TrEMBL record:
It comes from the Eukaryota. InterPro entries: Beta-prop_Nup120_160, NUP120_helical_saccharomycetes. It comes from Maudiozyma exigua. Residues 84-440 form the Nucleoporin Nup120/160 beta-propeller domain. The lineage of its organism: Eukaryota, Fungi, Dikarya, Ascomycota, Saccharomycotina. This is Nucleoporin Nup120/160. Residues 523-703 form the Nucleoporin NUP120 helical domain.
Length: 1048
């Protein structure tokens, strides 16, 4: 029965930047013995994002630790601090040569305030690296390394006796275990870390020498694991399963035990005892208790105690032999183990715990051997989940993403793609895309939605495989007092095992027959029926419950009728009637009322826990992520049960009135749980920052050293999240703000659409003004301008909203004098004491014309603004701007008849000079030029009344006159305008001036034709004294024109 659960802690997944920002490349110089290595930025990233051969963690204080990796080619060490891996240093240490025997020839020590690496490299040299902790932890690169930070020496010639493993006894003494089974000490001879050899009193050297001439086997074999006891005794486990104890004072072997004798039985003969394949952590010591691992069968642990007799000789007394609980059909290898004080698993008895990490390829398994009493006899194996809840739930998510009725194939694909992308680290997802690209599996424009979904299915499978490889384990570490951390072979990728709360315990043991109390029975009944439904049903149900809570299901329906509606749209025809009957029979066999009340009171309505944690002054990325993932796991499990319980009331519609109070509570929790889950998927970092801002004094989270403190801090944050009111929810507003205001973080239009669909639309309250105003802005930001306009039109320009009803970020915009937000003018309008709907639509039009690709809506808004103004007796302060905006939109759409109307009726708000500029722009622009002019001529010629008054006529005439040039076209336009405006004489003068003054070189027949036009115009005048035109200062009469025409 799993009592612990795996929590993923990928240190880069939550970050705004997908890679560390402060990578430092260290090389040992360019001496004759040492090769200097330089790396480009891309090469550095390739190094830190490649899978390593080994990783481990080093505690430097109770709340801080350093992680290091040995690269797959054993040539570099990568180091970072998990609490600040983005802005803190990421060190790449380039070794002069590869390590001699993988990680087994590398040891680490913390001495005073310095981290020491001792490494035997390929040629047998000893490399010592000294890194001050303040240098490693310094973010600003202000601390410099001393010139002697690395040293290479040859304290012993390892040409004949080849080292197999290096072990640090202390800062002053290193042990070198040799391939021939011998051991050699390296003692520090100076403060500059010069080492000298120290021979132990064993016969291994003689054996290795005589082996050159005679066959002489070493019975015990070489060392494969070592620990020290009381700084006095060195305990060694050999490959042939011997335990050797050396006295570090006398350098003598004081005890030796053949451990294989303890495990030989009827099933295991001495000749079948396997050797260890390589060195590893097969000894674990806590106080005076020692555990020894053997790879026999499926793994055997010999447990005993150490004691010193009167002769100062350390003895080992075997107390118990424990076989692993692994099935015989599987093949697992021990990755690491740690003997430790009991963790707080709430068992009745616990004396010691052995944390055991197994691996099989990229798979892993974690167990705890709980030793009950100090006699070391009684024990029990405690299981854990080996897949995080995030991974388990993700397997069900993509098939449940159903295409909405109003969603295009392209929008549906984008949503599925971004949903999938949010599940994996940027590194894993990018690698998966590259794999598909290299295999020429791509999305092309001609692909239909079925082909695109096949691509996504492949992408999901490969991403999950890559994540599985990234999760390949290396070692265990104990963080703080008892937190169990797993170091993987992927830099910045860890997981931590969490002690399950009661509800988590119920969830992870749903399929365990031993867990069978009343509440467990109830939850198992629900789970069994749920498993008979299609995958997407539960997701659809939870969304339907959300629609009830947010008022999106018709308010005319009773609560019970809303549940009936949910049944019709989600569950109808989705289950077998026999399964439903089984559910009913099972529910009738238990006391649902008391169990439901117990579930709500003890597992949902959480009391604020005791604050056992310590608030942090600075950001701790590791603590932040582990808290967020723990919180996500707890809330997700709660929601699974809440939705399943609510499902029973959908199936049993007649029970609503009886359970009304409980149903309302469950609906309330479902809404908040879904909000958390969706905000987590959208932006984990922003969510947890918003939570920490409210839950801790310094907004940086907390430090915790034990499981009690960790679970208390999770419960503290969860209680705070649940206590936040649904109306104007802080966490909802913090998230929507980043999309509406477009903060410094780059957010794509596709990401905004995804947020809109997953968060904005589902969680707004229908009919609530502020919510619908926010939704309108969000639609606008997502590029869905028509939908935005529908919401902007609600509530009469959103009048009667008081400033205190607005979210804080909107109030801040109003208070900021230098706010450049496109929404500030609109927000000022809706909270103004003299709110005017016309003013609202004017500013809305400006938003659409300046910040969207849908100017039709800008035109619609400004027309509505002007229309409202015309019906309002009060003079509006923006009347001129209104008409300027109206003109801009009309001109943009070439609606020139209305442009002319605005100009000729707009003398009250446009001065003559302003109208002159408009007419000049319209008549002088070469693109709409002819259309505007033809519209003007058509309006003048078809109207019985004057279209332009004298002032506007003079404006247009002046513009056309100044536009005259040497061609007939410009003269013809002036002639036409004057003629249709009933200024016939002036029109005729244009013709005469062009053909008889400017174009004297044209042939006589052409002149005669235009002369006849002038004659015809003047002939229409009744009085003879009106039949003339002016040619400069001269008067030309009709008769003179006739004579001139006859002479042509």
């Amino acid at each position: 029965m799993p009592s612990l659960s795996k929590i993923d802690v990928n240190l880069l997944r939550f970050q705004e930047y997908p890679a560390p920002q402060n990578i430092v490349n260290l090389s040992l110089g360019n001496d004759s013995n040492i090769n200097y290595t330089s790396l480009s930025t891309q090469q550095q990233l390739d190094v830190i994002f490649s899978q390593s051969s080994y990783s481990n963690s080093i505690n430097i204080s109770n709340d801080r630790f350093i992680c290091y990796h040995l690269t797959h080619d054993y040539s570099r060490i990568i180091m970072y601090t998990p609490d600040n891996c983005i802005n803190g240093k990421t060190l790449i240490i380039n070794l002069p040569q590869t390590s001699l025997h993988k990680h087994n020839s590398i040891v680490t020590l913390i001495h005073e305030q310095t981290l020491l690496f001792h490494i035997i490299v390929k040629d047998g040299s000893l490399l010592t690296i000294k890194l001050p902790l303040n240098y490693i932890l310094d973010n600003g690169n202000s601390v410099k390394l001393a010139e002697d930070w690395a040293k290479v020496q040859n304290p012993y010639d390892f040409t004949i006796r080849v080292p197999h493993m290096l072990y640090p006894v202390s800062e002053d003494l290193l042990m070198v275990f040799l391939e021939d089974g011998g051991l050699l000490g390296l003692r520090k001879a100076s403060e500059e870390y010069d080492f000298e050899p120290l021979l132990f009193n064993d016969n291994s050297y003689l054996q290795s020498f005589t082996k050159l001439f005679y066959k002489n086997e070493n019975v015990t074999g070489k060392a494969i694991s070592a620990v020290t006891f009381n700084h006095r005794y060195l305990i060694i486990l050999t490959e042939n399963y011997y335990l050797k104890i050396w006295d570090l004072k006398s350098f003598n072997l004081v005890n030796e035990y053949n451990l294989s004798a303890n495990i030989v039985d009827e099933d295991l003969h001495s000749k079948d005892v396997h050797q260890y394949s390589d060195a590893g952590n097969f000894l674990s010591l806590f106080q005076n208790n020692l555990v020894i691992y053997s790879p026999q069968k499926n793994g055997i642990f010999q447990i005993g105690s150490l004691s010193v007799n009167q002769a100062d000789i350390l003895q080992f007394e075997l107390k118990n032999i424990v076989g692993s609980s692994l099935p015989s059909s599987s093949i697992w290898f021990l990755a690491d183990m740690k003997l430790m004080k009991p963790i707080d698993l709430n068992y009745t008895s616990s004396y010691l715990n052995l944390a055991v990490l197994w691996k099989s390829g990229s798979l892993n398994k974690f167990q705890v051997l709980n030793i009950l009493y100090d006699d070391l006899k009684d024990y029990q194996w405690i299981e854990s989940t080996n897949k995080s809840l995030t991974d388990s739930l993700d397997e069900l998510d993509l098939p449940s993403v159903i295409q909405e009725e109003n969603e295009t194939d392209e929008e549906y694909y984008d949503r599925c793609y971004l949903t999938l992308k949010s599940k994996f680290s940027p590194e894993a997802f990018s690698k998966a895309e590259n794999v598909l690209r290299e295999n020429n599996i791509l999305i092309v424009a001609s692909d239909n939605i079925k082909q695109k979904k096949e691509y996504l299915a492949n992408l999901e499978t490969i991403s999950r495989d890559i994540k599985g490889k990234m999760d390949e384990v290396s070692t265990l570490s104990i963080v703080g007092d008892e937190l169990i951390l797993v170091n993987t072979l992927t830099p910045f990728n860890h997981f931590i095992y969490k002690i399950n709360t009661s509800l988590e315990y119920y969830y992870f043991n749903l399929h365990n027959a031993e867990c069978n109390d009343d509440l467990s029975k109830y939850l198992k009944i629900l789970d069994r029926f749920t498993n008979t439904l299609p995958r997407h049903i539960i997701h659809s149900l939870s969304r339907k419950y959300l629609e009830i809570s947010t008022g999106k299901i018709s308010s005319t329906l009773s609560p019970n009728e809303k549940f009936v509606e949910n049944f019709k749209t989600t569950l109808h025809d989705q289950f077998d009637i026999s399964n439903l009957q089984k559910l009913m029979d099972d529910l009738n066999s238990i006391d649902i009322v008391s169990l439901l009340n117990d579930f709500i009171q003890n597992y949902l309505t959480m009391q604020e826990p005791n604050t056992t944690f310590i608030e942090s002054f600075t950001t701790n990325i590791f603590a932040k992520i582990s808290t967020t993932e723990g919180l996500y796991q707890m809330i997700s499990i709660q929601n699974i049960f809440v939705v399943q319980i609510l499902m029973t009331f959908v199936l049993l519609d007649s029970t609503y009135s009886y359970f009304e109070e409980q149903i309302e509570i469950l609906l309330h929790f479902n809404q908040k749980q879904l909000l958390f889950q969706e905000l987590y998927k959208q932006d984990k970092l922003q969510l947890i920052d918003a939570i920490f801002k409210k839950s801790t004094k310094y907004s940086q989270g907390a430090k915790y050293y034990s499981y009690l403190e960790w679970n208390d801090f999770i419960a503290h944050n969860m209680s705070l999240f649940y206590s936040e009111p649904l109306e104007m929810n802080t966490f909802f507003l913090e998230s929507i703000k980043s999309y509406i205001l477009r903060s410094s973080k780059q957010i794509t239009i596709e990401e905004t659409k995804m947020y809109l669909r997953n968060v904005g639309v589902p969680f707004y309250y229908k009919g609530r003004k502020c919510d619908e105003f926010l939704l309108a802005m969000l639609f606008f930001t997502a590029g869905q301008y028509e939908e935005a306009y529908k919401y902007f039109q609600l509530h009469d320009g959103y009048k009667d909203i008081h400033i205190h009803e607005l979210p804080n970020f909107m109030q801040n915009l109003l208070e900021s004098n230098d706010s450049q937000s496109l929404w500030t003018p609109l927000i000022k309008v809706i909270v103004a004491t003299d709110h005017k709907e016309a003013r609202f639509y004017y500013h809305l039009s400006c938003r659409y014309s300046n910040h969207s690709v849908n100017p039709e809506l800008a035109l619609r808004a400004i027309k509505k603004s002007v229309e409202i103004s015309m019906n309002d007796e009060m003079e509006l302060d923006i009347v001129t701007k209104q008409h300027e905006q109206l003109l801009a939109m009309l001109i943009r759409f070439s609606i020139f008849d209305e442009v002319i109307d605005v100009l000729r009726f707009g003398h009250a708000f446009f001065s003559s000079s302003e109208r002159y500029q408009y007419f000049q722009s319209l008549l002088g622009n070469q693109n709409p030029n002819d259309k505007f002019f033809s519209t003007l001529i058509n309006m003048i010629s078809t109207n019985t009344e004057d279209v332009l008054d004298l002032q506007d006529y003079n404006i247009v005439d002046n513009i056309l006159s100044k536009s005259l040039d040497d061609d007939w076209t410009s003269h013809k336009k002036l002639f036409t305008f004057r003629y249709v405006s009933k200024y016939e004489r002036e029109a005729a003068e244009v013709v005469f001036n062009y053909w008889f003054n400017l174009r004297k070189d044209v042939n006589s027949s052409l002149k005669k034709r235009y002369c006849l036009i002038i004659i015809n115009i003047l002939s229409t005048f009744v009085n003879n004294y009106d039949q003339y035109i002016l040619n400069g200062a001269d008067v030309v009469t009709l008769d003179e024109l006739k004579d001139q025409c006859m002479s042509l």
